[in-house]
Design a protein that fits this description.
By secondary structure, this protein is α+β, with helices and mostly antiparallel strands. It is elongated, with a radius of gyration of 25 Å. The strands form four sheets. A four-stranded mixed β-sheet has the order 1-3-2-9, covered by helices on one side. A three-stranded antiparallel β-sheet has the order 6-11-10, covered by helices on one side. 24% of the residues lie in helices and 30% in strands. Helix 2 packs antiparallel against helix 3. It folds into two domains: 172 residues, no CATH class; 50 residues, no CATH class. The longest helix is centred in the middle third of the chain and has 17 residues. It has five helices and eleven strands; from the N terminus they run E-E-H-E-E-H-H-E-E-H-E-E-E-E-E-H. It starts with a strand and ends with a helix.
């Protein structure tokens, strides 16, 4: 298993983020749906990358609701559509048209729709202090770039699921920040973060800005949230 870290002297005296890479060949929908039971997170770790805590670490969850107007009309419409006759369907359409200009606020309501997938955007300005740092940075970027890409499934044109990540913390453990298994949805590497391109004779860079977005593999439920935080 490959283990990389930046900076090279990163240790458990301070907090850092640990990205464990899991190969997802043969990943199935059934396994994805059992994520709250953590069944598939026990798969073999192909590599680990340790990075400092980024300057901004925001955790947010959004839920969506759908507005529903005139519940009585919806109920009548459903009954009529079940009859599947052209006159009844036309009647519902005409009623809906009339109600567009006569909305009754007391009959409006919100219906729960879904929990959005959690997305985490992380960025680092990386400045190597020595040749070992520079070598690790190159390998770290290569590992992340590879992990976001899918595999060909044998000799056919189908693609297998890309690698996924389990993200945890090393050193001091922060509270209220827990991750479900994630995939890397976006990675951006800026080799000229200070506005002008520079490169050493070795081909290494004096500074790199690395930005990545991770998305959890499934939306959260109350049961998953309680399990994550040991409730």
């Amino acid at each position: 298993m490959t283990s990389l870290r930046y900076p090279s002297n990163l240790n458990d005296q301070a907090s850092y983020m640990l990205f464990s890479i899991h190969e997802a060949r043969g990943f199935t929908t059934k396994e994805l749906q059992s994520i709250d039971k953590a069944q598939f997170t026990q798969s073999k770790i192909g590599g680990q990358i340790a990075l400092p805590i980024p300057n901004q670490l925001q955790d947010s969850t959004s839920v969506t609701y759908e507005g529903l107007e005139d519940r009585s009309l919806l109920g009548e419409g459903a009954k009529n559509i079940l009859n599947a006759t052209a006159p009844s369907i036309q009647k519902v359409v005409q009623a809906g048209s009339r109600y567009k200009t006569t909305k009754l606020a007391s009959q409006n309501t919100l219906l729960f729709d879904s929990v959005r997938i959690k997305m985490f955007s992380l960025s680092w300005k990386i400045i190597p202090q020595n040749a070992n740092d520079a070598s690790n940075i190159q390998q770290i970027i290569e590992q992340f770039e590879l992990a976001k890409l899918p595999y060909y499934n044998g000799g056919n044109s189908f693609l297998n699921f890309p690698d996924y990540f389990t993200i945890s913390f090393g050193g001091k453990q922060p509270k209220l920040i827990k991750f479900l298994p994630c995939v890397l949805t976006d990675i951006s590497t800026n080799f000229a973060p200070d506005g002008h391109f520079q490169m050493y004779d070795s081909g290494d860079y004096p500074a790199i800005e690395l930005s990545m977005t991770f998305g959890e593999l499934t939306s959260r439920t109350r049961e998953i949230q309680t399990s994550l935080y040991g409730g």
